[in-house]
Structures are given as structure tokens and as C-alpha cells.
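Figure caption, in words: inputs first, then the predicted bound structure.
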Amino acid sequence: MYALKICTNGAESCVLTGESFHRLGAYLPKDKQVIIITDGNVRKFYRDFIDGFPVVEIGVGEQYKTLRTVENIYAALLDLNADRNSFIVAVGGGLVCDVAGFAASTYMRGIPFGFVSTTLLSQVDASVGGKNGVNFGGYKNMVGTFNQPQFVICDHEMLNTLPDAEFVSGLAEIVKAAAIRDAALFDYLEKNADEILARKADVLSHMIEMSVKIKAQVVENDEREQGERRILNFGHTFGHAIEVLSGVSHGEAVSVGMMIAARWSAGECGFPLSGVQRLERLLQRFKLPVTSTVPVVDVLQSAAKDKKRENSFIHLVLLSNIGKTEIRKTSVDEISKKLGNYYG
Ligand SMILES: NC(=O)c1ccc[n+]([C@@H]2O[C@H](COP(=O)([O-])OP(=O)(O)OC[C@H]3O[C@@H](n4cnc5c(N)ncnc54)[C@H](O)[C@@H]3O)[C@@H](O)[C@H]2O)c1
Ligand SMILES: [Zn+2]
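Bound structure (nicotinamide-adenine-dinucleotide present):
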């Protein structure tokens, strides 16, 4: 078991990788009423454990990431007489953690909470960094807060029940973490790709721990996304557009987005072609796509509306090498001219 303490804005969160969810009790405050928030799917797999607590169940899927769901949670918390002496545990993937973290952060101006992260994506990405919230007005994560869970339990055993598509989607974020910050992790992923796909426990545990460390380091340096945190957007500028336009999973879209960014990096900032090839090979071994059938003009139009855009500029996250990033403030005009060259 590995415990990583993350400090941001005076709040401390502890991410526990290689820990078992059966040991949740060890992290709960002794004198508080504990309430679990989960989704119907996760509850079905882990009913024995979850139903030992009062449970608030939310719907499965991104369409439930709404203020309506948050209202339903508030109502259920009221019914359970929850107050500042209560403690919320979200048991689920990124969706459950984002929604429950937001509900807990706002109910009675905030009650404490922790996460049991049950998808690969949420273990390595969503659970670290204190962002939570819901979609609004057609935009993802438009309404939310920055607030840290007291703990995040990342139990790789829980990934054994995860469908392949969800597992692979999480792998895309791990490849991203390695590509932007950790050449040694990138090597490790290449050498252990088969064991990873076979979900071998010790390999998963190591890979998750390394990825969590990377995200934690970046987030600690820059909790509110003013500077360094931007590197976490590698593959996401065009990836988001592809996700919205084609309906592929987040991980698949980010995979294509990383390839576009890698080709752009080779063309514009000296990223070696061998690096582009390594990235492509690794993504393909993980059964992730490296090109998209969405027309480039549609991607352009959608990327130009990106909410992280600054006037008519987008901060493109590029690679100068595996593990090293370079951020280029690029005008939408320049992107329009060049995207076709790198789209793949
Ligand atoms: N807060 C952040 O920093 C951050 C970062 C990245 C993503 N996110 C958010 O995370 C969400 C996506 O997260 P996700 O991919 O984990 O989605 P999710 O929570 O919807 O889970 C995906 C599916 O897997 C099921 N599931 C979860 N755990 C399981 C398990 N152990 N066994 C079997 N099935 C299981 C769920 O019921 C669901 O059907 C998005 O809403 C995204 O915006 C947030
Ligand atoms: Zn992502």
C-alpha cells in the first residue's frame, strides 16, 4: 500500500494506492454518520460491502451528471438527517466522485467526504486534484467547486469487474501522464503492455501509483490551472472536440488527440519522429485509436469554442521529447492553417 499526501490551498488529501476497499473503516471518522453515494452498477457488484451503510444511489452514465441529480442527493441527505456530523463516501467512477464531491461540498456549505475510486480513469485522474462538479448548458463540468476529499482509496482489485472499454479508456490517461512527465513510466508501459492488459495485480498497482504521483505533482504546483496544470490537457484540445462530435469514449478521443498533438510536436517543436512512432505503437497495443473519421473542419470549429481558449488563442500542449512538454500559445488562425497537416 502506498499513501500519497497531496496538499493544495491548505487542504490535505491522502490518495491510497494498493489499498483494499475492505479497509475503508480504518479511514472513516469514528463519531460521524457515514453515507455512501454510488451508482446502480457499482452497487450491484459490491452490494455486500456498500449496503452495510445508508446508501444514496444515482443513475449510471454521463446523462446523470446534472444539477437535478445533485438535488436528488440533497433530498436524500435531508431524509437521512445528514448534517455537518455526517461523512460522505463516494464509491464509484469519475462520475460518481465528481457529482458526490460537489454535493458534499455544497450541502450545508460543505460536509467532509472521501472516495473509493472504482474505475481506472477515476483512480489515476478524476480522484486527484479536488475538482468536482456537473455538466450544465451543454458544457462539461461547467458548474463545480475545488475541494479535496479527505482520502481516496484506489483498489486495483476493483478493476477486475470493470468492462474492457472502461479499462482501456483509463489507460489513455496513463499514457498521457507518462508522455508529459515520465519517460521511465512510458518505458514501463511499453515493456509491460501484455501484463497490463491481463490486469496483473502488481503491474496495475505500480502503474496506478506512478500515474497518481504525476498528477499529484502537477496539481500541487498549480491547483487552479493557471500554468503547469495545463500540461494535463495534452491530447485534450482536439480530443474533446472528437469526443463531442463522434461519441467515442473519452479515452479513445484523447488517444487520437494525443496523436495529433504528437505529430504537431514533431512538425513544430522538434519532437523526434521515433517518439511519434512509440506513442502510436503503445496506444495501438492498448487497442486505442490513433486516427478519427470526424472531418477536420468540424474538429476545428469545435476546438475554437473550447472553454479553455483565451480570446483567439489556445494553449497547445506539445512534446519536445517523451516526458517533456512545451506549451505553445497558438492563435486559432494558425491552428486552422496547420491542423490538416497533423490530423492524421
Ligand atoms: N474531477 C476530475 O479531475 C476529472 C478528471 C477526469 C474525468 N472526470 C470525470 O469522470 C467522469 C468519467 O469517469 P469514469 O470513466 O470513471 O466514468 P463512470 O463513473 O461513469 O464509470 C464508467 C462505468 O463503469 C461502471 N463502473 C464503475 N466502477 C466499476 C467497477 N469497479 N466494476 C464495474 N463497473 C464499474 C460505472 O457504473 C459506469 O457504468 C466524467 O464525468 C469526467 O468528466 C473528472
Ligand atoms: Zn481526460
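The chain has a mean pLDDT of 94.
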